[in-house]
TrEMBL record:
Pfam families: OMP_b-brl_2 (PF13568)
Full protein name: Outer membrane beta-barrel protein
Domain Outer membrane protein beta-barrel, chain residue ranges per copy: 32-205
Source species: Pseudofulvibacter geojedonensis
Length: 233
């Protein structure tokens, strides 16, 4: 994960350096109330980092993220700002970790594709998000085609989660297992030009509490997400 953070920092530095060279020092805004208030929509691939030995992801694990960011400029040219907002996320994780309730206790075991037959084994979360960002852009009032870099953090709260399984052990849904870490603080980065913007986030909390173990080993899995984010004015 140190390599990921190093990559993000280097991308930030390179894009800022390039974009600053493209911005005229004479840029002045006619409207002192100009802001970049935005709705956002992001589509991500969800990767489970630091999985226990034998645990794997199967199929597509995806995320849908949407919300609103209030823009608070902090310099005269209004190219720097703080963003605060509110949002919602729906995340799915397809994997071979079977989570089920046996005699009122949660159990965790790894499914084998050669022994266990199943068509679905999914963990799904619904979350509210409270983002805060440090924002840089070289936008103007006349054009929304500009470079942007939004570096920030979110406090995500899982208000509902579901385990869905269809297979040899039965067909069932397990709602809100108590081993889920409901608070999911993340660091994230959005950068790009015009419509197309890359998005990445890394969870600072594990998806499950220390009580969740498979073969005696804690499931210290974290969510890493990569995808595209669209900002809508």
């Amino acid at each position: 994960m140190q390599k990921l953070l190093f990559f993000i920092i280097n991308v930030f530095v390179v894009i800022v350096s390039y974009s600053q060279n493209a911005v005229s020092d004479s840029l002045v805004y006619d409207d002192p109330k100009y802001r970049e208030d935005q709705f956002y929509l992001a589509l991500t691939y969800n990767f489970m980092e630091n999985k226990p030995n034998g645990m794997s992801q199967q199929g597509l694990s995806s995320g849908l993220h949407l919300g609103f960011i209030r823009d608070i400029p902090i310099n005269q040219k209004r190219t720097l700002a703080i963003g605060v907002g509110f949002g919602y996320s729906n995340n799915s994780y397809n994997h071979n970790l079977l989570i089920r309730e046996v005699e009122d206790d949660l159990t965790y075991e790894l499914l084998s594709t050669t022994i266990d037959t199943y068509s679905k084994n999914k963990f799904n979360t619904h979350e509210v998000a409270f983002p805060i960002q440090f924002r840089w852009r070289n936008s103007t009032i006349e054009s929304h085609k500009f470079w942007r870099i939004y570096l920030g953090a979110k406090i995500n709260y899982i208000f509902h989660s579901v385990v869905k399984h269809k297979g040899d052990v039965g067909n069932f849904k397990l709602r809100n297992p108590n081993s889920v870490q409901r608070f999911q603080p993340v660091i994230d980065l959005g950068f790009g030009w015009n419509t197309w913007n890359f998005y990445a986030s890394y969870s600072l909390n594990t998806l499950f509490k220390n009580s969740a173990k498979v073969e005696g080993v804690a499931i210290n899995t974290r969510a890493v997400k990569f995808g595209l984010i669209f900002y809508i004015f």
